[in-house]
Amino acid sequence: MNIRPRRNRKSEAVRAMVRETNVSLTCLMYPLFLIDGKGQKTPIQSMPGIYRWSPDLVLTEIEECLQLGLTSFVLFPAFEESLKDREASISYRTDNFYLKTIREIKARFPEACIMSDVAMDPYSSDGHDGLVENGEIVNDKTLPILSKMALAQADAGVDILGPSDMMDGRVSFMREALDANGFVNTSIMSYTAKYASAFYGPFREALDSAPKSGDKKTYQMDPANKIEALRELMLDTEEGADFLMVKPALCYLDVIHLLKENSTLPISAYNVSGEYAMLKAAGEKGWINYEKAMPEMLLSIRRAGADVILTYFAKEYAQLVKSRTIEL
Ligand code: PBG
Fold it and tell me: Is 194 a catalytic residue?
């Protein structure tokens, strides 16, 4: 044998030299759930270690994360049922607690990269991402609502807008509105290939945002489809997106790879709530070594081609890096 691949695996020093992929803290975005009030840190049953934070406490949480080396955050609001209506009108009222909190965070930590969520579901009495008329989710009447929401969030100072709604044409609609109002530097990370997945369950519990009737299959993608993701890629690119996202991540590594191979834009992947819950549950039962499996999962998402990973594991990963359980 003149060729022995094991020679390049013989010690940690050699392995580290030939390692092809790594997960740095700067490629992670940490999702945080917000609730109105003061002094609130309420656990989410199906997501151990993840909380809904009131505005005062989320500031402390972000400060702690920044000290650990995490720089980017995605914020999702949980609004009380009584504030929701068909048109999601609370979403663009400048005095709503979500927008006020974004302002406070950006004032206190201008260096933090803050991404918002653009979709109607947390604000809609129907619990859908778009406007519901006679049981149908209507596309074109949703666009002006999303665009008002996007402008309000841009005005509050977000660095990146994250349209997660999957309506057709929303990226160009938002881009035009942003540019016309002087927000030329506000980026758009489009949820490009967002699938109608069963892995969003814990998130909907966290925000109490499940659809009141029906499902999301007329706007989110069919899990069976891959070529269609290329069609969405072409559209979002032409419409002016700055990042393209695949969601969920772990069951869709092939789609992440496909988008990476076919785009010059940065690709992000959303390692969603159900994926977090599964690993946490197995870890708590002692059926899997959580501290080893978690970084392996993140690595697999990066290896598939993701430049950016949105993950609930981010803070724990950063803590494991700090304690040198994980070497970067
Ligand atoms: C909705 C939205 C969802 C998630 C992010 N934005 C849920 C859905 O589409 O029903 C899911 C994130 C997760 O599961 O972690 N606009």
Answer: yes
